[in-house]
Amino acid sequence: MGKVVVVTSGKGGVGKTTSTAALGAAVAKTGKKVALVDFDVGLRNLDLIMGAERRVVFDLVNVIQGSAKLSQALIRDKRVETLFLLPASQTRDKDALTEDGVGEVIDKLRSVFDYVFCDSPAGIERGAQLAMRFADEAVIVTNPEVSSVRDSDRIIGLLDARTLRAEQGEQIAKHVLVTRYDAARASRGEMLSIDDVLEILSTPLLGIIPESQDVLRASNLGSPVTLSEPLNAAAKAYIDAARRLEGEDLPVVVPFERKGFLDRLLGRRAA
Amino acid sequence: MNLLDIFKRRSSAPVARERLQVLLAYERRNRSQPDLVSILREEIMAVIAKHVQIDQDYLQVSMDRGETMSTLEIDIQIPNKSAVPLAMAG
Ligand SMILES: Nc1ncnc2c1ncn2[C@@H]1O[C@H](COP(=O)(O)OP(=O)(O)OP(=O)(O)O)[C@@H](O)[C@H]1O
Ligand SMILES: [Mg+2]
């Protein structure tokens, strides 16, 4: 039985889709069978980030409504054999997803794949709740910034109340993934520290992804950063996070600022 | 950073632009009417269904929408029992 992992955040634009693609690709590269499911109905983007936008024929809503088979809607990645994408529909009808329909699709995926990553839409409404409903684990994507941390806290509350596992009295494993971490700003004390974030959310840390141009470039090219540039700092951080998700005990290193030439010249010190 | 990196840095925005142009042209057209490739797909599948009952599990449809050219691939596995010859499988 595969594991279902929801990638969620509450707040929009913090890096859920980027993280779904990067983590999913990193896990698939180890030979595991991985499905990425886009739950952002009406605003799908995972296809674009995965570089599969030209190949979408069917989507999640088609499968739920029975007009396509799951096997027909899954798009196989061109780079990693064991990586698949189930696109969201572009319909404006927000009720196109039904809980029973989603449950059936997730069950089928769970029986075939080792990992099913659900890319949640922003918010705490129906779409976000359906994305987390059948999850075994959650990756809570958080930026080190007050409104993002607050929204993460609300999402953690929902994960503990509204998921099927929670309702059945079971635990849902939760992990915080801090993204867009800017070491320079952190060293100047302009950003919440990792310790602050973890203390406030009291949830274990899956990894710290640095703010990075590489991520933007990877999106431009339509390739998860863990595939296109696996040696870059952001990619390495994602690969380590993926290994932790698989249960490996890797220490998390907080990215530090490499002092620039000017800083050294002027003898500037961290605040 | 080596030369290749510099080249890669330069080249990512034009790639993004081109990908978006192709995708948005398709999505805009598609908002008002289904695209030709989708129409063909549905009609071809309807014709096939008329002659032989195909289990959806044995039918794979793939598309690749390009800027000047799109490809539509319909892959059907027909059980030998049905004696209907179909040239378009493959
Ligand atoms: N580590 C990073 N460094 C720099 N930019 C990043 C990083 N992670 C994400 N981004 C950028 O942040 C933006 C939002 O990312 P993304 O689409 O993954 O967020 P999201 O949470 O899925 O958004 P939404 O809530 O709209 O679905 C994108 O432009 C992405 O390239
Ligand atoms: Mg997203």
Automatic annotation (TrEMBL), chain B:
Keyword Cell division: yes
Annotated Pfam families: MinE
InterPro entries recorded: MinE, MinE_sf
GO molecular function, one term: identical protein binding
GO biological process: cell division; regulation of division septum assembly
Domain of life: Bacteria
Sorted UniProt keywords: Cell cycle, Cell division
Family: Belongs to the MinE family.
The protein's role, per its UniProt record: Prevents the cell division inhibition by proteins MinC and MinD at internal division sites while permitting inhibition at polar sites. This ensures cell division at the proper site by restricting the formation of a division septum at the midpoint of the long axis of the cell.
Name of the protein this chain belongs to: Cell division topological specificity factor
Gene: minE
